[in-house]
Amino acid sequence: MLSYINILDGLYYASILYLLSLGLNLVFGVSKLLNLGHGSFYSLGAYITAWFIGIALSYYRQSQALLLIPYLGIAIGAIAVAAIGALLEKTIIRFLYNITLERQLLATYGILLIFSDIERMIWGGNILSAPQPVDLLGNINVGGYYYPTYYILLIIISFSIGIGMHLFIYKTDIGILIRATSYDRELAPGLGINVRRVSTVTFLLSAFLAGLAGSLIVPITSATLGMEIEPLILAFIVSVIGGLGSFWGSLIGSILIGELRSLGIALFPEIELAIVFLIAAIVLAIRPEGLLGKRYGR
Amino acid sequence: MTSTNRREFLKFIGAGVIGLAIGSAATYILTPRGAAERIVERTVTATTTISTQTFPKVTSPVTPGIPSKPIELIDVDARSGPGAPFTVPAINARKMAIDEINNSGGILGRKINYREYDENQGSPDAVARLVRSTIDQYKPDLIVGLGISSDCLAVAPVVDELNTITFVQCATNQLLQGGKVPKYKTVFRPIGSNAALDAVGLAYYVAKHFPNIKKVAGINQDYAYGRDEWNFFIAALKKLKPDIEVVNTWWVPLGTSDFRAHISQIMQAKPDLLQTSIFGSDAVNFMRQAIAADLPSKIPIAYAHAESLLHLVPEMPDGIIIQAAGPAYPLYPPPNIYGKNFSFVNNYRSRYNDYPHYSSYYAYDSIYAYKYAVERAYSILGKWPDIDDLIKVLEELAFEGAQGLVYIKKDHDTGVGSLVGVTKRDPRYPFVTLDPNSIELFPGYLVTPPPGVSPGNWISTW
Known about the structure:
The complex is a heterodimer. Helix content of chain A is 71%, strand content 3%.
């Protein structure tokens, strides 16, 4: 059974994948780094936000702050992860830019495992939930179906941030430096560009986007150990389909995967996961560089 | 590919050496001593809200026929990963039982040495290797835990080969039911939790209390337990209500965290009843997202194996049919009537500042099952039983546990009932309760196949 609700469901899922794959593509486009540790930023954003909201609401349950705390938590989660990302880039990631792809994958997978253990040390095996934003906003009637308002808000925020990032890259001086570095990393220093600083800024933005995705999703999906694996895999598929390093590829790829997953659940519930991988395989067979792979990057 | 000159090469080597040094130092500093294994010996004074119980300190007597060395117990249970929220309450209760036994003199004077390991090893084979190495190293008298079905299936042949008594806590029917009796000589499941027991109890309840439903849908996880749960439920329900029609089934991959699209489909299909058995942290996400979409107010939900959700989703609305994953929860058997549940809940609360989950009952009772079996064997033989003697006693053991009457069957599974009720909030409790007027306990003989018969074949003969 199909309806416009399925389209909305697909868009909602796509919005999270968009933020995640945008960060992946940003770093790959500029630094040619495939970062599996990107998933850790997603789970860290979720944990920090849920943890903050839980603590803050235990102190300010009876005040006006009730309406602000969840959104403050989302902002704090994303900003904290961006700071962690910058620190990580300065200490570890910078050594990974010029090594081979398989070593990058191994090293960044190690980072993913380390962060997973850090999360376990700090928050244990507990499930951290922060359903307050969803509860506070309630539902809106979409053609006879009750649809949670927070989901609509999440779609708007995600795509707005994504478009904002796009404008930042294309309309600001820093953005021009980032694009120049992504076009030719070897030539950029010759033009006076501080490639190391550009790489740090890019990685910080990437971590911010993934952290924001985690912070936005935690009111819907509780923070748990291993929560990053499924979205990380799908974000990689989005990046590969759209074209690694491509901004527009992230947008097109995430909407394609989000909608396909939603339609797959509606029409072929037995093989919902297989459909996504099948489409990825078909796209790669026809265009190995992805749908918009040549537009950007290599 | 850029060429690497000598200076760069040396820089990389230097960075690697420094990194290794820092990593080693950090690991040394951050690792708690004895993290891989801990021998736990505690003294517990359990102060309950009602009464105070102080376990008397008893010095270990040297009794003829009793070895002087402690009992070696290995606990392999999920301390991390998606299963952890569901197994930590079991680990807590197990430690409580061990401390109670140790503080009252041990089992026939032998204290229990407790060693704990994380079941979250990445694969069933890795868990089997871990179990093999712990058996080689410590020659344990008892292994407990193993809550993941695939791990159970991998470990069972290993402990059988190495002749080590193991009390598992997983729910797969493939482990013990159907075929040879018993399937594994040394493997027991002294818990009332498996897909058939959950599903059949739920089907009985739905057939009895929801006579007007026609269209049924199901959403379950796409692995053995989820498939079994749905197949047994619908097979049993069709036997009890032949006019049932299945409108749709959804199979979600394990680890799915987002159910928005599934919930839309369920609401569009408009079944009279939705059955589910989604387990683990996925269950919390599914329930929360269903509540956000107002699904429970539109479609009745029959949820199998869901007692933990009463604790983990405190905003769960009234009216959801919950099969409690066995015969007990903190308010059943009624603590004001059944003292063992009363004291168990009180002791657990005073120790952990929380209420026990369903898994706590199994873990606690399984330690006592071992104690009672050893004591019974000793009373017959006059010596500490060897493994074969202990197995003979275990195969006909019955005792009153925290969850009520527990008896172990010839196939090494347990005959207990299946508790089903409907949620109803009670402001006196921090967890969601089951309406006392709605609770039904379907006895073991109604929800468990006879030894040697698979649940599917058993239901087909009804």
